[in-house]
Amino acid sequence: MLSGLLDPVHLVILLILVLFVVGPRRLPELGESLGKTVRLIKEAQQSREQDRDRSDGPPTI
Questions:
Q1: Sign of dihedral through CA atoms 42, 43, 44, 47?
Q2: CA 58 → CA 9, 19, 30, 53, distances in Å?
Q3: How far is C-alpha 5 from the chain's CA centre?
Q4: End-to-end CA distance of the chain
Q5: Secondary structure letter of residue 16 according to DSSP
Q6: Is the Cβ–Cβ distance between 27 and 19 less than 8 Å?
Q7: How many Å apart are CA 32 and CA 50, to the nearest integer?
Q8: Per residue of the chain (61 residues), what is the pLDDT tens digit?
């Protein structure tokens, strides 16, 4: 169903559409915001995994 979604041609078309919608001036802001969001998601995921790993040990009394 989505086998050819990430073809280079599709990515270029998507980039051009984003450029038209957002505009060239706001594109760096969009990239920065997207980077911060991805970083926050990764940090939250790592924190959750660490919490889960700590709770998997033997119960402390």
A1: positive
A2: 52, 53, 45, 11
A3: 17
A4: 52
A5: H
A6: yes
A7: 27
A8: 566 777 888 888 988 998 899 888 898 898 899 999 999 999 999 998 888 887 766 655 6
